[in-house]
Amino acid sequence: MSPSRSRQRQKEPSREHRSLVVPRCSSRSLRVVRTTAMIAAVPSGRHPIRGSALTRLLYYEDSSLREFEGTVQEVADRDGAIWVELDRTAFYPGGGGQPPDRGRLGDVPVTDVREEEGRLWHRIEGKLEARTPIRGALDWRRRFDHMQQHTGQHILSQAFIEVASAETRSFHLGEEEVSIDVAHPGPDPELLRRAEERANEIVWEDRPVRIHEVSRAEVGRFPLRKLPAVEGMVRVVEVEGFDWSACGGTHVSRSGQVGIITLLSTEKYKGGTRVAFVCGGRALRRQRERARLLRELALEFTAGEADLPKAVARLKEESLRMDRRLKTLLRSSRPRGASPSS
């Protein structure tokens, strides 16, 4: 049985139980997973409802947590891979377009994190023993990058609604770039510029990013971009006064931490438009690469960066002129009566 994904959260000691429904943040379809969260210290042994001890999800308590201490609860060997369950974890299992975290448990690499029937499993490249304390450390650069991209996506999606009434249908966070599919047949450059500028205004205003856990009955007080068709508790991510989204992912604490949102390209996709973009550190690295390429081209053409379009146009015209001259020479060199292919 292979691990699959879901969400849950545990808070400070109390002996109550409640149903917690955390939507997966996908704009195409708002999928949810119902779990039972115990608002108490995690007991050892069998849980009376689900048959297993619950893992305390530290990434919902503090998404900026880089290291933590926990205890290995169980070790499982599945399909040649070793998976461990902890009593508490800061490793996010992925979902709704956001990939899972990586990092280390002690000296052992964690290469994947998944959820199976409310239990969180960490795939490790090594060995750990059950009932032993362990110190976990996230690959923070990867996690913070995911938080920048995911929060940036929330902001950009709302910007497209403001400037073009174009809702986001789906979201994908890739290794190199991020994309959203918006319900617009073909935004022109001016509309794209306006959406990008509006999104960056929100970033640079450094607005707080807040997390609300509310009942289904209370969801109506938030102007969500898409209403979740669920019962129980719902997790709402708010970029103060701008966007409210039902989402189970990890996010930065202020919009300013997104840094910048840069649109890369667009293409038609399933009657709408796929918009590729990057945020924060990815945008900085893209800018560095583009600057390097421009410098190299400027040196090759012995021209300033601003003059590169003219230099390329001259090269193209010269190439066409030489091509016409070559064809004329070839025609004049053929013997009389010979076919062009001979």
What is shown here, in short?
The protein is of the alpha+beta class and 342 residues long. The protein has helices at 58-61, 140-164, 189-204, 280-301, 308-333; strands at residues 16-23, 32-39, 56-57, 67-78, 81-86, 88-89, 103-105, 108-116, 119-124, 133-138, 168-173, 178-182, 209-215, 233-239, 243-246, 261-269, 272-279. This is Alanyl-tRNA editing protein.
Under CATH at level 1, the class of the largest domain stands as Alpha Beta
Task: Bin the helical content.
Answer: 25-40%
Fraction in beta strands: 25-35%
Q: What's the pLDDT, averaged over the residues?
A: 82
Subcellular location: Cytoplasm
Keywords: Metal-binding, Zinc
GO molecular function: alanine-tRNA ligase activity; aminoacyl-tRNA deacylase activity; ATP binding; metal ion binding; nucleic acid binding
Cofactor: Zn(2+)
What layout of secondary structure does this protein have?
Layout: E1 16-23, E2 32-39, E3 56-57, H1 58-61, E4 67-78, E5 81-86, E6 88-89, E7 103-105, E8 108-116, E9 119-124, E10 133-138, H2 140-164, E11 168-173, E12 178-182, H3 189-204, E13 209-215, E14 233-239, E15 243-246, E16 261-269, E17 272-279, H4 280-301, H5 308-333
Parallel strand pairs: 3-6
Antiparallel strand pairs: 1-2, 4-5, 4-10, 5-9, 7-8, 7-10, 8-9, 11-12, 12-17, 13-14, 14-15, 16-17
